[in-house]
Design goal:
heterodimer; A: alpha/beta; D-Maltodextrin-Binding Protein, domain 2; 2 domains; ten-stranded mixed sheet; globular; B: about 300 residues; mainly alpha; MetI-like fold; 14 helices; 2 strands
C-alpha cells in the first residue's frame, strides 16, 4: 500500500475539520456532516445482521440516534458469533438474505464472502459527497482495515469497523519481584517467561490459547516475528518453511516450559481467568479482552497490568491483527440506505464510544489520535499506547482463504500435539498434507 | 354400539362388506393420508434429502455437483472420522456402563426402607433435571487445573493435581464422569420401578434354602429386573450416542481431537466447514451404525424378556 493512501493529506484533514465545523454550526450531531442528505431515505426499513459482542451492543444502544438522523427504521438482530456465521452463510448462499447490512469477522469470513459475491461494491458510494461524510476517507483507516475491506481486485466491499491487535498483558508485580523488565524481543520474552515460572508456588511465566482452533492465531502471530505468513501472495502454503517450524517450536517451548498444566484445553477465557488470579507473568491475546483486568470485581491484578506491544521477532516486528467490518449485501434492494447505516456505525462518534467503553478499537486513526477521545477512555494509558503501537506494526495474522476454520482446526491439532511433546517439523508436515487438499478444493467451483 | 351397526351407517356397512371384497378399501385412504404426509415430511423426506446430499459435492457458497460415492470413499480414508467413531463408541460404552452399575446400586439402596428415604431420593434425582449446558459450564470450572475445586479437594488428601478435561488421556473419562453424574438417577428410577414389581415369594424361598444376599441378587433380583435394565441400557445408549451438548460446551472435541465424537465432527463438517455433502455422508454412515446397534439391543431385550417376565 502506498504511504499517501493511509496518511491523511493536509487537504483531507482540512476537509474533515471544515465538515465537522459546518455540522456544528448546522446543529447536526458531531461527525455527521450537513453535506450528506441523511434524510434521503427516510421511511425506509433496514434489516441489520450483527455479531453479538460489545461492539454490536454499542450500535444497538445508540440505534435511535441513527433512526432520528435518517428517518430510517432499523431492525437489528445480534446473534452469537458461531451462529451468526452459520446463519449468514446459509442465507447469503440462498441468494435472498433477510438482511441488508451484515457484520462480518474479516479473519474468518472475508474470502468466503468475496468468493460468494455476497457483498455489494460500495466504491462509488464512498466517493459520492451526497452519500459520504467528507471526513470518511480511506487514509483515515489503519492499513489492515483497508486490506480487509477491499477484495483481491481492490474493490471496496465493506467498511472496517473494529480492529483487534494481539498484545502482551504482563503482570508488573511479578516482573518487579524478579527484577525483570518488559521484553523487547521474542528471545527476551522466552527468557522472562522461564524466569517467572515456579510451579512450587503455582506461578507460571506465560499463558496463551492451547485449545485446538483457538490456538492457531498464537502460532501465526509468532510466525509474523519471523517475517513469515502461512500463505504466500500466490496462495501457496508456507507452513513447513523453516520460519513456520521455528515459530511452532517457540510456541511449544513457551507452552511446555512456562505455561500452567492443562493449557492444551485453554481458550482465551481460561487463559484470562488464570491471568486475572495474579499467578501468570504474561498473557498473549487480543487487545479487546482488557476491560476485566481493571475491574476489581473480576480481577486480582487491578493496577498491576502492563499492556505491551508484541516484542520484536528475529526478523520482523509485527502485531497480529484481526478485525471485523460492516457491509451491504449485494442482494439488498436498499443499498444506499444500508450504506448510510454502515457509515454511521463506523463514524468517529460511534468509534469514540466503542473505545471509551473498552468495547472495541476503531480502525480509524482520527478517533485513536483525538485527545478528547483519549481523555474519555476508561482503560489505562498504557493500554491505549499498546493499541496505537500495535497499529504501527500491524499485520494480518490469519490467511485470507475460504477454509479458515479447517486451517485453524488442522493446524490447531498439530499445535496441541506439540504441547504433548511431538516434533514441530513432523506435525506441521502432517498438517500441511492434510490441509492442502482442503485448500485446493475451496477454490474450485 | 348402535352407531356402528350396518343399519345405521352406510359407510360402515360398506366397510364391512369391503373387508370381504377388497374393492371398497379405498374408502379408508383419506384417513391414512394425514399420517402419511406427516411421516413423509418429517421422516422420509429429510432422510431422502440427506442421502441425496451425501452423493453431491456441496459446500455452501460454492456450486454443487454430483459426486457419486466420492464422499463415502473420502470417509473410508479419513483418519479423523475413524478416530471420532472410536471416541463415540468408547464414550457410549462408558456412559452406559457407569450409570448402569451405579444406578442399579442406588436403586437397591433406595428400595430398602430407611429414614428420610423420600427426601434423599429427591436430592439424588436433581442432577437429571439440570440443563446439560449449565451442567457443562459448572463442571468445566470444577475441572479447571488451577482454579477448580476438584484439584483442591485432591490436594487435601495429598493427591497431585489432575488435568481432567484439559488432557488428551483423561478427557473422555472426565466427560463420562459428568454424564454419569447427570444420568445415574434416570437408571436408578427405572430400576427402582423394576424392583417394585418383583414378587417377594421367591426371596422368602431362597432365604429358607440358605441363599446369601449376593446369591439372591445374582440369581433372583438380576434376572427379574433384566427387562428394566435393558430398557435403561437402550435409553442410555441412545442418549450417549447422540450426546453433543456436554461435549461441545466443555471441550469442543478437544484437546486436539481427543474427545471429538461423530456428532461433533459431523457438526463441524456441516456447519463450520460448510461441507454439506461430506457431512451428510457421515450422517448416513452414523445412522447405519445406530440402526445396527439398536438391532442388537432389541435382540438382547427380547432375550431378557424371555428370561425375566414370561418365565419360559
Amino acid at each position: 500500500m502506498s504511504s499517501n493512501l493511509f496518511n491523511p493529506t493536509r487537504r483531507q484533514l482540512l476537509q474533515a475539520s471544515a465538515a465537522l465545523a459546518a455540522a456544528g454550526i448546522a446543529g447536526i450531531r458531531p461527525g455527521f456532516a450537513a453535506a450528506v442528505d441523511w434524510k434521503r431515505f427516510a421511511g425506509t426499513t433496514l434489516d441489520v445482521n450483527l455479531i453479538k459482542s460489545p461492539r454490536s451492543d454499542t450500535l444497538i444502544k445508540y440505534l435511535a440516534e441513527f433512526e432520528e438522523l435518517t428517518g430510517i427504521k432499523v431492525n437489528a438482530e445480534a446473534t452469537p458469533e458461531q451462529q451468526q456465521r452459520q446463519k449468514t452463510v446459509i442465507e447469503l448462499s440462498s441468494g435472498k438474505p433477510s438482511f441488508d447490512v451484515v457484520h462480518l469477522s474479516y479473519h474468518v469470513q472475508k474470502r468466503q464472502f468475496e468468493k460468494g459475491g455476497w457483498l455489494a461494491d460500495i466504491s462509488s458510494y464512498i466517493t459520492d459527497p451526497t452519500l459520504t461524510d467528507p471526513g470518511l476517507v480511506e487514509s483515515d483507516f489503519a492499513d489492515a482495515g483497508m486490506l480487509f475491506a477491499k477484495d483481491g481486485q481492490g474493490v471496496l466491499r465493506s467498511l472496517p469497523f473494529s480492529v483487534d491487535y494481539w498484545i502482551v498483558y504482563w503482570n508488573t508485580e511479578l516482573f518487579a519481584a524478579k527484577g525483570l523488565k518488559y521484553p523487547e524481543t521474542l528471545e527476551q520474552l522466552v527468557a522472562a517467561a522461564e524466569a517467572l515460572t515456579d510451579p512450587s508456588t503455582n506461578t507460571y511465566g506465560f499463558v496463551a490459547r492451547g485449545l485446538k482452533n483457538a490456538n492457531t492465531p498464537v502460532w501465526t502471530s509468532l510466525m509474523l516475528g519471523y517475517d513469515m505468513t502461512p500463505l504466500d501472495n500466490q496462495g501457496k502454503l508456507r507452513t513447513t518453511s523453516p520460519e513456520a517450524v521455528e515459530a511452532a517450536a517457540l510456541y511449544q517451548r513457551l507452552m511446555t516450559k512456562s505455561a500452567p498444566p492443562g493449557v492444551t484445553g485453554f481458550n482465551w477465557a481460561e487463559a484470562q481467568s488464570a491471568f486475572l488470579q495474579g499467578k501468570i507473568g504474561m498473557w498473549f491475546d487480543g487487545v479487546g479482552f482488557a476491560p476485566p483486568m481493571e475491574n476489581p470485581e473480576k480481577s486480582r491484578v487491578v493496577g498491576k497490568v502492563g499492556y505491551g506491544v508484541m516484542p520484536k521477532g528475529p526478523k520482523a516486528h509485527a502485531a497480529g491483527t484481526f478485525g471485523d467490518g460492516i457491509g451491504v449485501t449485494s442482494a439488498s434492494e436498499k443499498k444506499e440506505a444500508a450504506y448510510l447505516f454502515c457509515q454511521w456505525a463506523i463514524s468517529p462518534a460511534m468509534g469514540a464510544r466503542l473505545l471509551q467503553a473498552g468495547a472495541g478499537v476503531p480502525f480509524r486513526k482520527s478517533v485513536l489520535e483525538d485527545p478528547k477521545v483519549r481523555e474519555g477512555v476508561t482503560m489505562p494509558a498504557s493500554w491505549l499506547d499498546a493499541v496505537v503501537g500495535s497499529g504501527n506494526v500491524s499485520r494480518l495474522s490469519l490467511p485470507v482463504i475460504i477454509p479458515v476454520t479447517e486451517f485453524r482446526d488442522i493446524y490447531g491439532v498439530a499445535l496441541t500435539n506439540l504441547i504433548a511433546g511431538a516434533d514441530p517439523a513432523e506435525e506441521l508436515k502432517k498438517a500441511t498434507e492434510q490441509f492442502q487438499p482442503v485448500l485446493d478444493r475451496s477454490e474450485q467451483g | 354400539m348402535s352407531a356402528t351397526t350396518p343399519e345405521r351407517t352406510g359407510v360402515t356397512t360398506q366397510a364391512i362388506e369391503g373387508s370381504q371384497t377388497i374393492r371398497l378399501a379405498p374408502n379408508y385412504w383419506p384417513f391414512v393420508v394425514p399420517a402419511l404426509v406427516v411421516v413423509g415430511a418429517v421422516i422420509v423426506f429429510p432422510w431422502a434429502f440427506t442421502l441425496w446430499m451425501s452423493v453431491n459435492r456441496w459446500t455452501l457458497g460454492q456450486a454443487r455437483s454430483f459426486a457419486g460415492l466420492e464422499n463415502y470413499l473420502r470417509l473410508a480414508g479419513d483418519p479423523r472420522f475413524w478416530e471420532s467413531l472410536w471416541h463415540t463408541l468408547t464414550y457410549t460404552f462408558l456412559s452406559v456402563a457407569a450409570p448402569m452399575v451405579l444406578g442399579t446400586i442406588a436403586a437397591l439402596i433406595f428400595d430398602a426402607k430407611f429414614p428420610l428415604r423420600g427426601l434423599l431420593r429427591g436430592v439424588f434425582v436433581m442432577p437429571m433435571m439440570a440443563t446439560p449446558v449449565a451442567v457443562a459450564l459448572v463442571w468445566t470450572m470444577m475441572f479447571h487445573p488451577q482454579l477448580g475445586v476438584l484439584n483442591y479437594l485432591l490436594s487435601l488428601v495429598g493427591i497431585p493435581a489432575q488435568e481432567w478435561i484439559f488432557n488428551a488421556s483423561t478427557v473422555i473419562p472426565s466427560l463420562v464422569a459428568v454424564e454419569t453424574w447427570q444420568w445415574t438417577p434416570l437408571v436408578m428410577l427405572i430400576v427402582l420401578g423394576g424392583l417394585a414389581s418383583v414378587p417377594r415369594e421367591p426371596f422368602e424361598s431362597a432365604e429358607i434354602d440358605g441363599a446369601n444376599a449376593w446369591q439372591q441378587f445374582r440369581y433372583l433380583t438380576l434376572p427379574m429386573i433384566a427387562p428394566f435394565l435393558m430398557i435403561a441400557v437402550i435409553i442410555r445408549t441412545i442418549d450417549a450416542l447422540k450426546s453433543f451438548d456436554i461435549i461441545y460446551a466443555m471441550t469442543q472435541g478437544g484437546p486436539g481431537t481427543a474427545s471429538e465424537t461423530i456428532n461433533i465432527y459431523l457438526y463441524n463438517t456441516a456447519f463450520s466447514y460448510y461441507d454439506i455433502g461430506y457431512g451428510s455422508a457421515m450422517a448416513v454412515v452414523f445412522f447405519i451404525v445406530i440402526v445396527a446397534l439398536s438391532f442388537i439391543l432389541l435382540m438382547l431385550r427380547q432375550r431378557s424378556q424371555w428370561i425375566g417376565v414370561e418365565g419360559k
